[in-house]
Amino acid sequence: MQVSAYEPHQDVVVENDRPARCFTVLDGIAAAYKTTNEGGRQVTAFYVPGDVPGFQCLQLEVLDFSIAAVTTLRIGSVGHDAVRGMLAAHPRLADAFWRTTLIEGSLAREWLLNNGRREAYGRLAHLFCELLTRLEAVDLAHGRACDFRLTQSELADALGVTAVHVNRVLKELRDQGLITLGGGRLVIHDWDALAEAADFDPAYLHLRRDDARTDAAVIGPGGHRGAREPSPSKPAPGPTWPLPVPVAATSGTGPRTQPDRPRPRPA
Amino acid sequence: MQVSAYEPHQDVVVENDRPARCFTVLDGIAAAYKTTNEGGRQVTAFYVPGDVPGFQCLQLEVLDFSIAAVTTLRIGSVGHDAVRGMLAAHPRLADAFWRTTLIEGSLAREWLLNNGRREAYGRLAHLFCELLTRLEAVDLAHGRACDFRLTQSELADALGVTAVHVNRVLKELRDQGLITLGGGRLVIHDWDALAEAADFDPAYLHLRRDDARTDAAVIGPGGHRGAREPSPSKPAPGPTWPLPVPVAATSGTGPRTQPDRPRPRPA
DNA sequence: CGACTTTTTGACACGAGTCAAATCTAGTGG
DNA sequence: CCACTAGATTTGACTCGTGTCAAAAAGTCG
């Protein structure tokens, strides 16, 4: 397997390419995206270590989307011929990869629902829930916190909104005391409230066993998705994560009502 | 193969089901959809004859979306065991199905781009382009017209907007003289203009050969996707389709400017 | 310490949602 | 062949979520 490194914003492969190799994320975060003729950019998926982005190039001649590095990224790749040989020799393996691509489809559908039927506030919350859950599944997140180096504008591209708007909504999430994001670190202070705002149900991730987060329990060792080379444990650079929860409205005199957001949940 | 029939709005399978059979659309249009806890509904894909919806249930235990009939629908189904047997016996077949599910993923990504980065006007135009192209590929559309019995509210659910708004945008498309929709019939009067407004590029459909529409040429006989039982040619019930093109602004005296829409293309 | 990228904010415009009521259309049953 | 009804299509008036522009404040890196 050949390993290559990429810097943030660098493309690994671009739309219409006909890659001759299959990739897998070894370390870092990558994003799949497509663009509009008018310059619009839509991220269609984020890949975490262990994921196999663009595996479809094995079956479909032309790649219909691009893949770019979001953080510094290490990608492992194997030539198509070698892969075909392995798949032919081990039908079980083919099933596993098929399953992987099917899950990718499932995520895309959930994103469709998320971006199409929820407001920006819920969308962002949902994305945070998804990413944290997936990172936990590969042991890259613990205690509801994880390394998080996505730019607000990358989040915007994924959510189908503007970077400016992401910033506003992010502020709300913070003011609600649901999360803390900064210094390359995401901390979820109130998972239940966030999941509720996001209308998040991890079923679509098709995680086996119960690595899917449901309560405070720390996920078991190692994920189930062949993350052959778990990223070297790098000392969290940001603020040590169990930050003091920024409780909203604690100083006032009278019984202050919640900062207001819970509106969209009146139904 | 077992055949079953469904009436519009009827569900074929619903989220969380664990179907024991694989389906294929024989006749009619079906839709895959997901819903939000607050009642929002998002259609994630439309299926035309020859498509194999929800094939993933073979690999993924639980179905993560529902499938419903949009028009009267005939579905053929085969038990999982039988399918597994066939796939094991014919690796080539497995590849073909894998390819099919990958294409489904490609469509989902394009929808993500469409719904996330284009305004309702372009989205609707894009959906029309996609559906007509796909129907042509299975020989269910000719001369840029086809049977079209989707409800405005179904279109809305697919585009992530409101039915009311679909109606308004549809009016614009008509006023521009781009299409005619009514009586269960869709006619595209100006394909180039529509494709331009939609920013439509059929590459993501991964159609082989060139059944993908690019000019006025009528598509060759029969599609490539195993539509084993092409729908019985039913005499078009609506108005005979080559309707008079509703040219916009033909009566005025002075040099009327185009009804205005082309705004979103100023870039 | 500059040069640059990312994050924040405010003011204002516009696309899309909400509500409601008035047609229009298919079916259905008489 | 025609009322009768339920669903689908249209429209108007008004609200609200997001986009657009701009510019200041922070953060990053050689």
UniProtKB/TrEMBL annotation, chains A, B:
Keyword presence, RNA-binding: no
Pfam families, per the entry: cNMP_binding, HTH_Crp_2
Keywords of this entry: DNA-binding, Kinase, Transcription, Transcription regulation, Transferase
GO biological-process terms attached to the record: regulation of DNA-templated transcription
Composition bias, Basic and acidic residues: 258-267
Ranges of Pro residues composition bias in the record: 232-245
Alphabetized InterPro entries for the sequence: cNMP-bd_dom, cNMP-bd_dom_sf, HTH_CRP, RmlC-like_jellyroll, WH-like_DNA-bd_sf, WH_DNA-bd_sf
Location of the HTH crp-type domain: 118-192
GO molecular function: DNA binding; kinase activity
Location of the region described as Disordered in the Swiss-Prot/TrEMBL record: 216-267
Protein's name according to its UniProt entry: cAMP-binding domain of CRP or a regulatory subunit of cAMP-dependent protein kinases
